[in-house]
Design a protein that fits this description.
Largest sheet: 3 strands, antiparallel
Radius of gyration: 42 Å
Helix content: 25-40%
Number of helices: 8
Structural class: alpha+beta
Shape: elongated
Length: about 250
């Protein structure tokens, strides 16, 4: 299962300004390209800040100090890598409360810009594409289930799973994996499971045998310490019958 990366979603850099770019030139570029911010790069094309519409308005209101990109930009700049997943980039945006991320290569040079609107492309995937990815990657390749074991319905990114599975534990795993598929808005679980009766094995006895004392049964009591022995013949007792033909 392949997640779309920052490289898949970002806008390749078309606009960047130098630290000395003027207020009016930045305003013109924002209007011309229909963007809300522009990265500021140094001589080696490494981002050093970002100038947004809010920065321009703040400078216009203050009406003091220089009106160059270097004076108006927000810095230090928060950047992303092209190999990151969309989720990683979205979390970074949320953590730093920014609306866009300059994307840099291994040398720190600007190669693109990722905005919130770019991330929304994830939810513009066709329902059929989402359905095929769930069936082929999640159901068959990862969980090794038959493609016909689960019915997958996708409507506007909302996934409904139905069908009968023979392993109850597989359902929650299937739902969690579906939730990670790009473009999925929510997952509804309508799965059912086969009911099987479990019979505990009994203890077999040999033919004609009788069960002996089981574990925990009490043995028959024998004579204990201090018990009186059975009385035997004592002095004066009558002898038993004399054997025939014996000496007198």
């Amino acid at each position: 299962m392949r997640h779309r990366s920052v490289a898949d979603l970002m806008t390749p850099t078309a606009v960047a300004v130098q630290p000395g770019t003027s207020f009016k030139e930045i305003a013109r570029l924002l209007d011309e390209y229909g963007i809300t911010a522009v990265p500021v790069v140094d001589d080696e094309h490494r981002p050093v800040g970002v100038v947004s519409e809010a920065d321009l308005l703040r400078r216009h209101t203050a009406k003091d100090g220089p009106s160059t990109a270097e004076a108006m930009m927000s810095s230090p700049v928060v950047t992303a890598r092209p190999s990151w997943t969309a989720v990683e980039a979205a979390r970074l945006m949320e953590r730093h409360r920014v609306k866009r991320l300059p994307v840099v290569d291994a040398d720190g040079r600007l190669i693109g810009v990722l905005s919130r609107s770019d991330l929304l492309q994830l939810f513009l995937r066709r329902d059929r594409s989402i359905q095929e990815e769930i069936r082929e990657d999640v159901v068959v390749r990862i969980l090794r289930l038959s493609p016909s074991a689960v019915h997958i319905d996708v409507d506007e990114g909302r996934v409904t799973l139905s069908g009968t599975l023979d392993r109850p534990g597989i359902g929650p795993i299937l739902v969690r994996l579906c939730e990670t598929v790009d473009g999925v808005v929510e997952v509804e679980d309508r799965l059912t499971y086969e009911e099987g009766e479990e019979t505990a094995p009994g203890l077999g006895l040999g033919q004609g045998s009788e069960p002996g004392p089981g574990p925990g049964s009490e043995p028959e009591p024998g004579p204990g310490p201090g018990s009186e022995p059975e009385p035997g013949p004592g002095p004066g007792s009558e002898p038993g019958p004399r054997p025939e033909g014996g000496a007198v």
